[in-house]
Inverse folding.
C-alpha cells in the first residue's frame, strides 16, 4: 500500500506526538544505507535544503562523519530557513566540526545524498535550484534521494522542472504515491523503504493499493470437469480497413488468458476470414450488436472513427453486457456527449482503458495536464463515466469512484504498438471468466506487465512485442488457477 502526502503527514504527526525521534532515525537509515555500499574512504556530497528533508540529510552527514567518511555539505539557502528539528541537526553537525558550502565545489565525489526537497514540494523550483540540480546530475554519480528525488512532486509524480536523477530513493515511514507513476519513474531509481521503527498501530493501510497485491487475491477456477462454455464467450468489435491486426492481437490475448470462445467482429468487409497463427480465433464481419452471442464485449481495437464505428459503439452501449472500451471507442466517446452519458447510465460494468492522450480528449484538456495530475485524472474519469478506468503509462493507475491502485510491474519494453489491444483482450477474457471489473482490471494490468517482464528476462530483448506478451500472459495467469 502507498500513501498520499496528506496521509503521510498525519502518520508523521501522530509519531511525533508519541515522542518518536523521526529525524534521527531517518538520518541513521540513510547513513546506514550509504555505509553498507561505500567504504569510509569514499568522499560524499550531501545536499541540504531549507526544510526537514535537509535536517534528515544533516543527521545522516553527522553519522557518516562519525564513521570516518569525508563529506562536503552543500546548503545553498544556509541554515536560517531550517525548522526547529532541522536547525538542531545543523547545530549537531557544527558540534562535530562540520561546516557548509554555498556553491557546488569542483571536487571528486563517489556519491551524493539528496536532501534538498522532500514530500512537501508542490511547485516548480526557482532557477537557482534547477541550475544546481542540473549540475549535480551532470556529475553522474550514485545518488541516494531522501523521500523523493528533489524536483519531483511527491503527491502527483509530476516533474515541473529539473529533478535529481536518483540511483535509489529511500522512502521514510511509507512510500509516497507520486514515486510510482508518470515522470517520477524516470528519476526514482530503486525504491527502498525505512519505516523508522513505527509500530503497526501508527501505520494504517495506504489509500493507494498495489495491483500486484490485489492480483494475488484473484483466482481463476478451472475444475477438471469443465468445458469452454464455462469460461465465457468474448466478442471483440473493431478491425476497420487497414487495422485488422488490432482485433487479432486482442483476440489472441483473450485466448491465452483463458476465454472459452473469442469472436472478432470486423467492420472491414474485406478483412481476414481466419487467423493462420491462431485458427482457434473466429473472425466475422460485424453487422449489428443484436446479432452478437457474447458474455462480454470489447469495443475499440482497430475500430476507426467512421459513422459505422460510431453506430457499433452506440449499439454496444445499449446492450446489458459487461463492456470494455479502448482506442477509437474512447475517441468516439470524447467527441459525442450523448455517448458519454450512455456510458455513465449503464447498469452493467464498464471498463475504460485510455492512454494519456485519450484521457485528455475525454476530459477536454491537454496530455500535459493529464500527466501532471495522473491520480486526479484517473479519478475524474471514473466519476464522470461511472466506470473502472485504467490510465495507462508508467505506473498505470486503476480507478473506481472510491478506490485506486497502481501497477508497479512492467517497463519501457512495453512501449510499442499493439500492447493496448493485448491488454483489452486480456481484461475482457478475465471478465468473461466471471471476475468482477475491479478484479479483472487489476489482475489484467498486472499480468500484462508481468508477462512483459518475464519475456524480457527470458530473452534479454530490448522490447517485448505485443503478440509475444499475449502468449506469455497465459503462463503468468496459470499461477492463479484453482
Amino acid at each position: 500500500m502507498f500513501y498520499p502526502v496528506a496521509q503521510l503527514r498525519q502518520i508523521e504527526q501522530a509519531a511525533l506526538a508519541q515522542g518518536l525521534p523521526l529525524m534521527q532515525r531517518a538520518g541513521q537509515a540513510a547513513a546506514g544505507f550509504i555505509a553498507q555500499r561505500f567504504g569510509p574512504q569514499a568522499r560524499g556530497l550531501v545536499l541540504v535544503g531549507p526544510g526537514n528533508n535537509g535536517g534528515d540529510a544533516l543527521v545522516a552527514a553527522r553519522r557518516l562523519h562519525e564513521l570516518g567518511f569525508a563529506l562536503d555539505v552543500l546548503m545553498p539557502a544556509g541554515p536560517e530557513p531550517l525548522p526547529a528539528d532541522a536547525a538542531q541537526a545543523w547545530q549537531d553537525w557544527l558540534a562535530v566540526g562540520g561546516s557548509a558550502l554555498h556553491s557546488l565545489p569542483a571536487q571528486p565525489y563517489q556519491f551524493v545524498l539528496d536532501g534538498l526537497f522532500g514530500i512537501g514540494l508542490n511547485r516548480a523550483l526557482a532557477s537557482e535550484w534547477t541550475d544546481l540540480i542540473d549540475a549535480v546530475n551532470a556529475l553522474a554519480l550514485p545518488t541516494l534521494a531522501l523521500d523523493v528525488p528533489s524536483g519531483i512532486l511527491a503527491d502527483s509524480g509530476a516533474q515541473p522542472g529539473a529533478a535529481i536523477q536518483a540511483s535509489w530513493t529511500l522512502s521514510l515511514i511509507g512510500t509516497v504515491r507520486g514515486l510510482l507513476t508518470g515522470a517520477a519513474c524516470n528519476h526514482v531509481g530503486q525504491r527502498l523503504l525505512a519505516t523508522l521503527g513505527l509500530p503497526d498501530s501508527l501505520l494504517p493501510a495506504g489509500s493507494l493499493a498495489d495491483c500486484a497485491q490485489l492480483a494475488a487475491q484473484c483466482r481463476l477456477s478451472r475444475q477438471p470437469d469443465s468445458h469452454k462454455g464455462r469460461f465465457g464467450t468474448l466478442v471483440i468489435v473493431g478491425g476497420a480497413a487497414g487495422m485488422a491486426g488490432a482485433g487479432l492481437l486482442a483476440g489472441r490475448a483473450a485466448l491465452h488468458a483463458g476465454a472459452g470462445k473469442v469472436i472478432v467482429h470486423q467492420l472491414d468487409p474485406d478483412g481476414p476470414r481466419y487467423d493462420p497463427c491462431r485458427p482457434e480465433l473466429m473472425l466475422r464481419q460485424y453487422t449489428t450488436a443484436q446479432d452478437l452471442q457474447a458474455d462480454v464485449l470489447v469495443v475499440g481495437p482497430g475500430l476507426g472513427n467512421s459513422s459505422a464505428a460510431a453506430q457499433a459503439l452506440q449499439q454496444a452501449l445499449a446492450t446489458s453486457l459487461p463492456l470494455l472500451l479502448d482506442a477509437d471507442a474512447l475517441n468516439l466517446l470524447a467527441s459525442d456527449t450523448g455517448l458519454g452519458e450512455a456510458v455513465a447510465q449503464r447498469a452493467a460494468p464498464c471498463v475504460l482503458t485510455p492512454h494519456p492522450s485519450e484521457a485528455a480528449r475525454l476530459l477536454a484538456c491537454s496530455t500535459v495536464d493529464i500527466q501532471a495530475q495522473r491520480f486526479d485524472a484517473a479519478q475524474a474519469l471514473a466519476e464522470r463515466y461511472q466506470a473502472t478506468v485504467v490510465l495507462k503509462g508508467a505506473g498505470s493507475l486503476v480507478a473506481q469512484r472510491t478506490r485506486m491502485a497502481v501497477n508497479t510491474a512492467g517497463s519501457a519494453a512495453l512501449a510499442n504498438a499493439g500492447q493496448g489491444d493485448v491488454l483489452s483482450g486480456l481484461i475482457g477474457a478475465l471478465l468473461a471468466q466471471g471476475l468482477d471489473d475491479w478484479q479483472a482490471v487489476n489482475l489484467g494490468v498486472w499480468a500484462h506487465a508481468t508477462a512483459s517482464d518475464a519475456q524480457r528476462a527470458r530473452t534479454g530483448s530490448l522490447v517485448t512485442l505485443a503478440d509475444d506478451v499475449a502468449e506469455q500472459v497465459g503462463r503468468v495467469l496459470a499461477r492463479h488457477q484453482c
The CA atoms of residues 86 and 417 lie 49 Å apart. The chain has a mean pLDDT of 97.
